[in-house]
Structure formats: C-alpha cells, structure tokens
Amino acid sequence: MSQFLVKEGVKNQIRKGEKLVTTHCCYCGMQCGMHIRVDEKTNKVMGVEPRYDWVLTRGKMCPKGVTAYQTIDHPDRIKTPLIKKNGKFVEATWDEALDLIERKYKEIQGTYGKDALAVYGGVSMTNEKCYLVGKYARVGLGTRYIDYNGRYCMSSAAGGFNKTLGIDRGSSLPWTELEHSDCFFMAGSNTAECHPTSIQWFWKAKDKGAKLIVADPRETATARVADVHLDLLPGTDSALANGIMHLLIKHDYVDHEYVQERCNNFEELKEMTAKFTPEYTSGITGVAVEKIIKAAHIFGKSPRSVVMFARGAEQQTAGVDNVSLYTSMALLRGQIGKFASGVATFTGQGNGQGGREHGQKADLLPGYRKLTDPKAVEYISGVWGIKPEEMPQPGVSAYEMFHLMEAKTIRGLHVICSNPVVSSPNINYVQEQLENLDFLVVNDFFLSETAELADVVLPATTWAEDEGTTTNTEGRIIHIRKVVEPIGESKPDWEIMSLIAERLGKGQHFQYNEPREIFDELRLASKGGKADYYGVTYEKIDEQDGVFWPAPALDHQGTPSMFKEKFETPDGKANLAVCDYRGPAEVQSKEYPLWLTTGRVVFHYLSGNQTRRVDFLKEQCPEPFVEMHPELASQYQIENGERVKLTTPRGDMIAPVKITKAIRKDTMFVPYHWGKKLAVNQLTSPALDPISRMPEFKVCAVKLEKLSK
Ligand SMILES: Nc1nc2c(c(=O)[nH]1)N[C@H]1C(S)=C(S)[C@@H](COP(=O)(O)OP(=O)(O)OC[C@H]3O[C@@H](n4cnc5c(=O)[nH]c(N)nc54)[C@H](O)[C@@H]3O)O[C@H]1N2
Ligand SMILES: Nc1nc2c(c(=O)[nH]1)N[C@H]1C(S)=C(S)[C@@H](COP(=O)(O)OP(=O)(O)OC[C@H]3O[C@@H](n4cnc5c(=O)[nH]c(N)nc54)[C@H](O)[C@@H]3O)O[C@H]1N2
Ligand code: SF4
Ligand SMILES: [Mo]
Fold first, then answer.
1. What backbone phi and psi angles, to 5 degrees, belong to 439?
2. Fewest CB atoms within 10 A around its CB: which of 66, 82, 178, 310?
3. Which atom of ligand 1 is nearest the CA belonging to 604?
C-alpha cells in the first residue's frame, strides 16, 4: 500500500506561460498543500496542482480540493455590496452599505445598549481574520455577544482536552509520525471521506503491521478495513471508552509508572470503570462482547498507539465526557507525550484549530486567555489600546444566541463566514429568529441561505484573494498566499471589519495595511497565553514547512510534540476522566422509534454553499439521502431509491433511501450539506453539552414513514 506515498524530493513542474502560487486548500483541517496555476499573461487562475513536497499531504488531494479553484471566479460570486429593498437585493456601493450599517448599528445600540448587536464568526478564515473578529466584536462594536461556528465543531474536543490535558491543541503529535505507530483507535471519524489525505499515513503504518480499531455506528470505508469495527449505538461512546478502560485495568495493560507520576484520579477511574464489564458495556452500546474484548487486547498490547476522534464522538450532549474518556485511554497506556503515540482530534474546518484560539469564542480572548481572568483582560486591553473596564463580559454560545434573539436581547447580528440557517440544529427555529432581527448583515462571497435573509450582504474574498495563515489539524501554522486580486468590489473580511469600526468611531484600533500587521498584533496578543504564537513569523513558516505552536520566543522553533515532560494543568499532571455513561438527551418513543445521525459525504463541504456550486461535486452527489439497513427497509417495505419522510418534533424532510448493510439496523444517517426543505437540520436536536455547549447533531429520535405512492 505504501506506494501511495509520494517519494520525498519530488517537485512540481512549471509549464511555459504559467506560474505556480504555493498555498493550501481552503476546505478541511488537513490543509493539503497545493499550487494554484495562474496564467502569466492574463493573471487568471487556470487550475490547481497538488503539492508533492508538502510535508503532510505529499501530493494528495480530494475531489473538493482539486475543484476548489473553480469557486474563485465562479459566476455566482457576489461582486458588490447588496442592500435589501422591498424584499429584493439591490446592488450598492460600499459607501451606501456602510452608511446604512453605521446608521442601523448606532440606532440599535443607542436604543437598546451595546449588547443588542451580536457577531457570529467562522473558522474558514485565516488566523488574522479570526483574531480580528474577536476584536471587532469587543472593541469595534463593544458587545459581549460573540460566538462562532466552531462551537458546532471543535468545542467538545476543546472542553475534553482542557479538562484532561490542560490545553486544547488538537493533536499531541505531528502526523508525519503516524507511519511509525502500531495501533489507531478511531472513534466517530469518517476518515476516508472527511480527512481523505490523512489515510496515506495510516496505510503506511498498516503496511508495517499497525492495527486499526474504528468505533462508528456505520461501516464507513475506514471501518471496512479495520481489524475491529465497534458498531456502537449513537450516543454511547462514554460507555464504550469506560468498557475498554475496564479491560485495560483488568488485564493490567496500564502503564503504572506513567500513571503514578503523570496522572491524577487513577483510583477514582478504577472505581468508576469497575461496573463497565464487557457484558454491561455491550448492553449499553450494542457492540458484541467479543469485539469489545478484542479491541481492548489489541489496544492494550500496542507499544505505540494513537487515540483519535472526530465529530461522531464529540457532537453529543456527552461530547466533553467522550473526549475526556477516550483521551484517558491513551493516558492509561502511558502514550501521550511519546514518539508516534498520543491523542488527536480531526480538526474540522481549514482553520478550525487556529480559529478557536484567538478569541472568537464567547468566553475567550486571544491565546486562549479567559475573559473571566482580570490579568488576561488587563493584558489584552493593553494590546488593544482600551481600558480594562471597557472590555465586555463573556457572552453565550452560538445556539444560545438564537434564544437571546427570541427574547429581543439581541436585535442586530453580523454573520462573518458561516451559514447558520443550514448548519445549526433545529433550523426552523433558527430561521424564525434570524427573520425577527431588526438588522442582519452577512459577509460571504456566495449568497448563502443565511445571506438571503440579510438586510445587507457584504462581498468577501475567497482564500485565494488574500494572504494570511491558518493552523492545520496538527497545530502547524502555515502560509496561505494571495493568488489573484479580489474579484469585483469584494474585500477581505479584515478590511470590511476595519471599515465598519471606523464608522463607529473606533478606527484608531483598526489601522492595518496588510494581514501581516494583524498577525504581528496577534503574536503579541497571544504572547504568554497557552496558544503562544509570539515566536512565529511568516518567514519562519516558509523556512520550516510550518511552525507548531506554542512557539513562545523568536528563537523558538515551535513544538511539534506536546506533553513530553508535563501537562498544561496547574499541577502538571493529566486528569484521568471519571465519568459515568449519560445517554443522549432524546429517548426513543413509540412515536419516534428510530435513531437518526448526521454527517458528511466526500463530495460536499459543510452547509454546501461552496461545493453545491461546483458542477462535478453537484453531479456526484446532487441531494441528501437516507442511509438505512436492508432489514429496516424491508420492515417498512421500502425499496432502494424510494422517497421517505423523516420526522422529529422539530420538523420533517423527504429524501430518497440508500439501502446499505453498512449501518446499524436501528439507525439512519443523512448528510447535512443542503438547505431549506432538503436540510436535515430541520430535524436535529438542539440539546447542548453542559460544558462545551455543543449541540447533539449526532443523535435524535426519529419517525420513518413510507410515502403513499
Ligand atoms: N468531505 C468532507 N470533509 C470534511 C467536511 C465536510 O463537510 N465534507 N467537513 C470538515 C469538518 S468542519 C469537520 S467537523 C470534519 C468532520 O469529520 P467527521 O467527524 O469524520 O465527519 P462526520 O460525518 O460528521 O462524522 C463522522 C462519523 O461519526 C459517526 N457517528 C455518528 N454518531 C456517532 C456516535 O454516536 N459515536 C461515534 N463514535 N460515531 C458516530 C458517523 O457515522 C460518521 O461516520 O470533516 C471535515 N472534512
Ligand atoms: N446536522 C449536522 N449539522 C452540523 C454538523 C453535523 O455534523 N451535522 N456539523 C457542524 C460543523 S462540525 C460545522 S464546522 C458547521 C459548519 O457550518 P457553517 O459555518 O454554516 O459552514 P460553511 O458552509 O462553511 O459556512 C461558511 C460560509 O462562509 C462562506 N465563507 C467561506 N470562507 C469565507 C471567508 O473567508 N469569509 C467570509 N466572509 N465567508 C466565507 C461560505 O461561502 C459559507 O457560506 O456545521 C455544523 N452543523
Ligand atoms: S478538502 Fe481537505 S482533504 Fe480535501 S483537498 Fe482540501 S484540505 Fe485536502
Ligand atoms: Mo466542523
């Protein structure tokens, strides 16, 4: 299998008449290395070439990445600001749009106070832009209400890592080490479809005998090649992890020296896991006893194992518990902080790692500083040139902002880089709240379903029209290069936020000529914080194939491997998780007797606002479908391709059935990349994890109906 890895030293060829601009893909956290081909004469984008010598992805790209260039000058691009007049969008000048925004923002804040305006950010943007969104909300608008789409993505991983390891860096090791690992325990990750270019590393390890254990209710392409597929009931990861730990203790696979020296809570964990015998665990998870035992022995015997998880385990009301428990499995084995071993979450969006570090979250300031920490407030106020008492208080999480819209506490909203009316749970409610706002502004480059509801749409640039940095799934900070000038009147988000701040009399805090200046401010703001970028420069990024944070000083090369000596908790020890099993918020009933889970397909990206516009991707997967087991289908007398209705107390949808044995008999799966009547989020549950405030996208109880013909 290892022939799939491109040999080191292979370089891309440059053809006559074109130049190659080196950058990274705009979509997922793999941030595959790519070159964009530009015609030297016309300066137009012609296509892409995978970058063979990029250290992590080695010339691999997926169907989304190789077609991403088609979005840059796509005919649907929004080229001017749009103002809604009598229910229809009319093209406007920047001055007209900014005049209106200034007037409405001042009116709303003048009447109802500063916090009546809110900001909803996103992490498909560079670090520079993500950093500025936090500052724009708190300094530009002076509001406490800011949160972002990463709340739906990375927040349970963050919660679990902070609890156990004291810091939220998604991977404890560089992924180039994965080829030397002996065992991968993957929970709730559809790796082959969602992080396709990472597969080469697992294959390479497998060639050398590494084992693969996959926990997923579906037999995904990755589960199919696993040594053990733990086909658990959605929402039962905490029982599974406790069950595996029960066996690690029982068969003495515990690294006692490591646990003694480096971990707290072992006795409590032992007590908690005592009841999670294979039989008890099987009773909750539905996974066969033999499979649980086999997985525990494989994992327990592997000298170098990596525990990895993604949204399957995280998007639950027990998401933080699940992350903490899975991380504890690695800790019991003494694996975190060692070569080719450790723990990692698969970062979702391109800058899902960086974008969560710089203060887009309701309670965080740059560098993972806490808004509730007076010292942090003082430091960041100094960097931003405001008085500490001017710093707004913590706000609420993304979904909870919609409740505040209902209560009319929030009356105006600025969405920057997200499509929440497709991607939130319970979107019929979300749409109502967005429609009830006094004023909605959206920055996007395509008219998303959320932008359609806006009063003003501001044309943002794509990733190829601006420079900056992102932080990939490993924690490696990389360079995104500007390829072409912004199309039409579009502007990068940092410029848009600066223009609005200027109109609100805060221009002195937003004087930037280029992203590099924002990065320098970010470096300073993060200095001394947990996610310390101070020692990272654009030059160092280019010289070193990226820089892993923390890099606290200019002469520091970065930190690819974390936790070699200590954890980032106050006492330097990791906290083993002591959590009982908590089931999903929703229970099955006579009316809603089946489970529904949601997720992705390889051809589309998130709310689909980008990939639904690329012909090839649209053709490959034109609409959502309901994946179900043949036995369930025959019970309802449903045939492959037949359209069925799914209903929950929140909404319903109709979609064709895809019959497959690769799913549990009691569970259906629907991908969520479409809006309006095709959106599965009409059905999903808005129940939140108590710590991370992550919605339970992965489990709800549902009714299945055959439609009369
Ligand atoms: N093609 C593609 N790739 C993407 C994206 C995309 O939209 N499309 N988005 C990116 C982003 S932002 C993200 S967050 C990642 C997401 O990456 P993943 O988390 O890998 O993707 P999902 O499809 O959301 O869910 C993963 C798996 O979880 C399983 N699952 C469902 N319920 C449970 C459960 O209760 N427990 C367990 N253990 N598993 C469960 C599902 O069957 C599914 O196979 O992908 C990134 N990459
Ligand atoms: N049912 C269900 N729902 C889910 C999930 C699930 O698994 N199941 N997963 C959740 C997860 S993990 C995530 S990450 C969210 C994502 O949810 P969203 O944030 O809604 O996802 P996107 O489609 O990426 O929305 C980004 C929008 O910003 C635009 N955009 C891209 N780059 C830029 C930029 O640089 N600037 C500006 N201004 N705009 C830009 C795009 O065109 C797009 O309209 O969905 C969540 N929702
Ligand atoms: S979507 Fe992800 S895996 Fe696919 S090319 Fe882009 S970064 Fe790579
Ligand atoms: Mo995500």
1. -160, 125
2. 66
3. 8
